[in-house]
Design brief:
The structure holds two protein chains of two kinds. Helix content of chain A is about 70%, strand content about 5%. Chain A is mainly α. In chain A, helix 1 (about 25-55) packs antiparallel against helix 2 (about 55-65), helix 1 (about 25-55) crosses helix 3 (about 70-95) and helix 3 runs antiparallel to helix 4 (about 110-130). By secondary structure, chain B is α+β, with helices and mostly antiparallel strands. Chain B folds into two domains: about 5-105, Roll (Ubiquitin-like (UB roll)), CATH 3.10.20; about 105-245, Fumarate Reductase Iron-sulfur Protein, Chain B, domain 2 (Orthogonal Bundle), CATH 1.10.1060. The longest helix of chain B has 21 residues, at about 220-240. Chain B is elongated, with a radius of gyration of 21 Å. The interface of A and B includes residues 7 and 21 of A.
């Protein structure tokens, strides 16, 4: 005689506690959060373009603003987040772009390394065309 | 062989008596080589026969004993007591409803697994008389790691996207769909795309990467999901920008 079984599954609510459950979640949120600074910096560049279009006085005021302590502090923080964002994403490239040559897969370090290499070359090219050398 | 007495806090939930789960503490004298599953078996056999949990093989093959051990998804048969300091807290796998004690309701995963058609759909029907399918070692290596999945659902418990958006098909199901898509004998990718290339499929993933970190069989579902995204994107561009390439 089978006893009648009653079911009442308990659903646990998900709270924001998960972010602190393991350091990996905090690292992930930092990576996601970095986009705010990169987005902010991009908007600042768009504003700079607008100032440039408005004439020499507006452009000079924009340059003056860039030299302010608040702007320098923002640039330092944005740079740190941009580097963190780029490094974490480049380190993930071997997962998204595995490359099989013959039987074996190319080591992940080579795929991530190629991205870092391209990043360095492009950065140097930008600095070269900007007249940094 | 050394012995050590540890404190264990096990989450209990009796659907007929409790309105919500609570923790029960047990002092367990463990042997040096014990895993958390041994300690649970010891509790059930000598202290409290009412404790419910799933287990079967005790050797990380069946995928039944997944649970949260100190907030991290683990197979209880692979989590050595000696690796833990202080109180060991055991809870049912996160993100799944609790049936009773450490037993979760896994219907959602089973249904999703079925939807992605995790089996070979041959390109063309083949008679037994035609002989076996031939596959090179390189073709085998292309999908082999994904075939190691034991459906233990640790990746679902680790994935915050699945916790927040239960409709998300999730890591193991997408990794298994990808496993068959990558198989040279298979021709079912288009059928699986309906499920895995959808918003609730790969695109729900924001690449936390936790699924691959907690996988006890070293499968890389996070990688599989990103590869599905890339293939789906190529499909979209081919269809909309270069329709003449589509057969």
């Amino acid at each position: 005689m089978a006893e009648k079984m009653s079911r009442k599954p308990y659903v646990r609510e998900m709270t924001s506690e998960w972010i602190f459950r393991h350091p990996r979640y905090l690292r992930y949120m930092t990576r996601e959060f970095s986009c705010l600074f990169i987005g902010g910096w991009t908007l600042m560049m768009v504003w700079g373009l607008k100032q440039l279009a408005e004439g020499p006085a507006a452009w000079a005021a924009f340059l003056e603003f860039l030299k302010s302590p608040a702007s320098i502090a923002f640039h330092v923080v944005a740079l740190v987040f941009a580097v963190y964002h780029s490094v974490t994403w480049f380190n993930l490239t071997p997962k998204a772009l595995p490359l099989q040559v013959g039987e074996e897969f190319v080591p992940g370090a080579a795929i991530a390394g190629a991205h870092f290499g391209a990043w360095a070359v492009l950065s140097l090219a930008v600095l070269y065309f900007a007249g940094a050398f | 062989m050394g012995e050590r007495t540890i404190e264990m806090e096990v989450q209990r939930y009796h659907p007929e008596k409790d309105s919500e789960p609570h923790f029960q503490r047990y002092s367990v004298t463990c042997r040096e080589e014990w895993v958390v599953l041994d300690a649970l078996n010891h509790i059930k056999e000598t202290m409290d026969p009412t404790l419910s949990y799933r287990w079967s093989c005790h050797m990380a093959v069946c995928g039944s004993c997944g649970m949260m051990i100190n907030k991290e998804p683990k197979l209880a048969c692979k989590a050595f007591i000696r690796d833990y300091e202080g109180v060991v807290r055991v809870e049912p796998l996160a993100h799944f409803p609790v049936e009773r004690d450490l037993v979760t309701v896994i219907d959602d995963f089973m249904e999703k697994l079925k939807r992605v058609r995790p089996y070979i759909i041959p390109k063309q029907a083949r008679a037994v008389a035609d002989g076996e399918y031939l596959q090179t070692p390189a073709e085998l290596k292309k999908f082999k790691q994904y075939s190691m999945c034991i459906n233990c659902m640790l990746c679902y418990a680790a994935c915050p996207e699945y916790g927040l958006i239960p409709k998300y098909i999730g890591p193991a199901a997408i990794a298994l769909a990808h496993r068959y898509n990558q198989d040279s004998r298979d021709g079912g990718r288009e059928q699986r795309q309906e499920e895995i290339a959808a918003t609730e499929g790969a695109w729900e993933c924001s690449f936390v990467g936790a699924c691959s970190e907690v996988c006890p069989e070293h499968v890389d579902p996070a990688g599989a999901i990103q590869q599905v995204k890339i293939r789906s994107m190529v499909d979209w561009y081919t269809e909309h920008l270069m329709p003449w390439l589509k057969k």
